[in-house]
Amino acid sequence: MGWMFIASLAFAGMHAAIRHVGETVHPFEITFFRNLFGFLVLTPALLHYGWEPLKARRPGLLSLRAIINLFAMLAYFSALTLAPLADVSALGFSAPIYATLLSIPLLGEKVGWRRASAIAIGFSGAVIVVNPLFGTFGLGHALVLGSAALWACALLIIKQIAKSDSSLTITLYMGIMLTPLSLPFAIPVWSWPSGAEWGWLAAVGAMGGIAQWALAEALKLGEIAVVMPVDFCRLLWAALFGYVFFDQIPSEATWVGGAVIFSAATYIAVRESKLTRA
Description:
With 278 residues, this protein is mainly α. Helix content is 78%, strand content 0%. The two termini are 24 Å apart.
């Protein structure tokens, strides 16, 4: 639980930093520095374990995951500069729901009525958050929903890679591949960061690397049924940071919809864990 708490705080802190530095630095450039500094944060692990984590058994899937992950990150970081932090965090919880839905045609998995109901409930929570009948749905909301769908595809690929490669290998190759892949998107909008901006960009990468590592450790050491509910703290942190630093007050729809999405995603994760053990 402690690792997941750290992960939720680091993710929310990274998102708040992106929102702040995104006022003067383009999200595509932020994406490049997130991957660059995120990889540098993990280099001590590489020095400790040597070249062994770089011996990937499924490089093709790692490359496909990197490409999908890149577009998911570009969309998500752009959404952070356009929509309230709490809204982005709440809608981001829909990724496991997308993953379950996509596993039917892509992996041929069978989804019973329980998980099918959870999928429907989760998407109803997304409708509550974006509140389209009252005109609160904007480009930022659309981008984060698209990002969640792409991240769901990446999750399914990671699930396959994890059968043969370690979580450290998967995390390291994320930085190794995404750093050069994100550079062509950053070059057209490039502006050299100022001194303060360098600090914020380094913080984005550091918090992102810490968050990924803590998340992997939490899922490795704890039961999903215990770990997943702690991830809801991410919405609480996002609401707090949004209010303190950006004068954003989450609406009731954000809280209700976020709780609905998270509950459905948690049920799916717990259900899948039980089926896997069985």
